[in-house]
Design brief:
Layout: H1 11-20, E1 43-45, E2 50-52, H2 54-61, E3 66-71, H3 76-92, E4 97-105, H4 109-116, H5 122-133, H6 137-149, E5 153-158, H7 161-169, H8 177-180, H9 191-201, H10 208-234, E6 242-248, H11 258-265, E7 270-277, E8 303-307, H12 312-317
Parallel strand pairs: 3-6, 3-7, 4-5, 4-6, 7-8
Antiparallel strand pairs: 1-2, 1-8
Helix pairs in contact: 2-3, 3-6, 7-10, 9-10, 10-11
């Protein structure tokens, strides 16, 4: 089964379309400032319309127990934002920060620990990474190098492929007992989350049954990551740690994916940062997914960080010195 990355990798382009649509009245997604007018590098506090410096943002984020950054997986610009947040929070709270990653399933935790602690070489770890998330380790290399250099605990948040495949193939009530026992608590009745997910699915040709299957998997991803994060925060190891979570934007936008489900389990303060593409090259315009989003009565994040959009192909095409 191919993971539903294809529905999350350009999620921030969806955000660009959703936030820019003001219409004639107040816009709950961006009540004070149109994000489409942001300049690259600006950081917007959506609720007030105030522009913050990077230092102001990092000082603000350091006060929260959980910080979410929603990425477009193949955007180097988004990963630079993530690295800046990781570095800034670690400098403010050395040895009190843990990084959680959507990209790795729970079963890879021993290998991940070995890599961060310097007990596994990078070539061996890349093999572990590739089996879980594909051949895109270079997008995350600087982030993981920083975590390894500073021995920052990194938490594998996702669930295993066999459970995802089982949930895709059958309704929850039809799962075999051994698989059902591995399920996290599943909330399939969040009308806002469902409306947003279905709007994305509607941009792809598929039957109703297929959309329901994909929605179950989407919820499984969110619930599993929330459960993993909640258990860590409540554990002796994590009870005094700040948790920084990197995931696809659709897992955190509007607080409807991981954030709401984590708060249901462990009600701790959290904040959401979304890199926001304001400069998309002409040769990348075909990657914009045209989705008719539902109108939701909340902003998509606490902060938007305006970025460009480059990927590894752009780096490869640059001429040498």
């Amino acid at each position: 089964m191919r993971r539903p990355i294809r529905f999350t990798r350009i999620s921030l382009f969806l955000l660009l379309a959703g936030c820019a649509a003001h219409g004639g009245g107040l816009n709950p997604a961006a009540p004070y400032r149109d994000p489409a007018g942001l300049a690259k590098g600006q950081i917007l506090h959506i609720a007030t319309g105030r522009i913050l410096s990077e230092k102001e943002l990092l000082d603000y984020l350091s006060c929260y127990r959980v910080v979410f950054v929603g990425e477009t997986h193949d955007s180097l610009d988004d990963h630079r934002v993530e690295l800046a947040v990781l570095r800034g929070l670690y400098e403010r709270h050395p040895r009190k920060l843990t990084l959680g990653l959507e990209m790795l399933p729970w079963k890879t935790q021993p290998a991940l620990d070995d890599y961060i602690q310097g007990k596994m070489d990078e070539e061996s770890f890349i093999q572990v990474w590739t089996r879980s998330w594909g051949e895109n380790f270079p997008y995350y290399r600087e982030i993981l190098h920083y975590a390894r250099a500073n021995r920052i605990k990194v938490l594998a948040l996702n669930t295993d492929d066999d459970l995802k495949e089982a949930v895709r193939k059958a309704p929850l009530e039809d799962l075999a007992p051994d698989l059902a026992a591995r399920l996290p608590e599943m909330d399939l009745n969040d009308s806002y989350h469902r409306a947003m997910a279905m709007a994305v699915f509607d941009a792809h040709p598929m039957g109703v049954r297929d959309k329901e299957a994909l929605y179950r998997v989407q919820v499984l991803w969110d619930e599993a990551m929330a459960q993993r994060a909640a258990r860590y925060l409540a554990s002796p190891e994590g009870e005094k740690k700040q948790l920084l979570i990197f995931s696809g934007g659709n897992h955190v936008r509007y607080g409807l994916g991981i954030p709401r489900r984590l708060f249901r389990r462990v009600p701790v303060p959290y904040v959401i940062v979304l890199p926001f593409a304001v400069e998309i090259p002409k040769n990348k315009q075909d990657r914009i997914m045209h989705v008719k989003e539902p109108v939701l009565p909340m902003p998509p994040a606490d902060f938007l960080w305006a970025v460009g959009y480059t990927d590894l192909d752009d780096i490869k095409k640059k001429p040498g010195p």
